[in-house]
Amino acid sequence: MSEDFILEAKGLTKQFRGFYAVKGVNLHVRRHSIHALIGPNGAGKTTCFNLLTTFLKPTAGTILFNGRQIEKKDPAAVANMGLVRSFQISAVFSQLTVLENVRVALQRQTEWHYTFWRSHKVLENLNQRALELIAMVGLDKWANVNAGDLSYGRKRVLELITTIALEPELILLDEPMAGLGHEDIGPVMQLIRQVAKGRTVLMVEHNMKVISELCDRVTVLQSGEVLAEGTYDEVSRNPLVMDAYMGGGHA
Question: Tell me, what's the pLDDT at 38?
Fold first, then answer.
């Protein structure tokens, strides 16, 4: 494995009762980049994502994270290695405040991360870092508001912040713009840019404007196989990609 790549998949294949959801996928995610996985409906994006995060085990192929094989590991072990899928540990606790949600994530980085019955005094030691993260995305006004009372867009921002609090090397985002109103897309894009500084982001996303503005590299899937890879400009001009998105494909 090249040190330039934080994540590599080689010959990644998933077969369900004779049907190939993913077939022979080779993927190379460069360190400190934002990489998108796109494709028409049924292209195999979600299955590929589930394989990369080890929620599914491949029929064939290998996955390397920082040079270590991970395809046989469980998702929790992979998360502890520094590869985190946003919903994996960043689910919002509706009855806790924004501050408390971020503090729970920060607690995972301490020596007492599995000890939930702690005094308020101990937990309050994490407040400064939690408030710094909250301020980074403009949620200061809502620090003491229950997460369940936030708008959908602010909940998505909170989920990303709790993911950042875990200090992962690689964050996988599954359609981060899904369900967001137009006014929320810009702030979430800005947050992803901030998240990517010093880290790597791999994302599945349908919004092509977001892909064009955010991503350094794009891999296009169709019918479970890699159709094209390159910059957004390169893949958007590729006749095979145009055919797949304009109705010529069968994914």
Answer: 94
Supply 246's token pair.
């304009």
Tokens of 96: 């806790």
Span of 107-111, 129-133, 200-204, 219-223 with lowest mean pLDDT: 107-111
Calculate Rg over the CA atoms of the chain.
19
pLDDT at 24 over 70: yes
Beta bridge partners of 203: 36, 173
Long-range contacts of 104-108 (CB under 8 A, 24+ apart): 104/162, 105/161, 105/162, 105/163, 105/165, 105/166, 106/130, 106/165, 108/165, 108/166
Return the structure tokens found at 222: 């169709």
Residue 250 confidence (pLDDT): 37
Candidates 35, 46, 43, 47; CA nearest to 7 is: 35
3-state secondary structure of 67: coil
Q: Cα(19)–Cα(21) distance, rounded to whole angstroms?
A: 6
Q: What is the pLDDT of residue 202?
A: 96
What domains, with CATH codes, occur in the chain?
1-73+201-251 (3.40.50.300)
* Cα 171 to Cα 65: distance, rounded to the nearest angstrom: 12
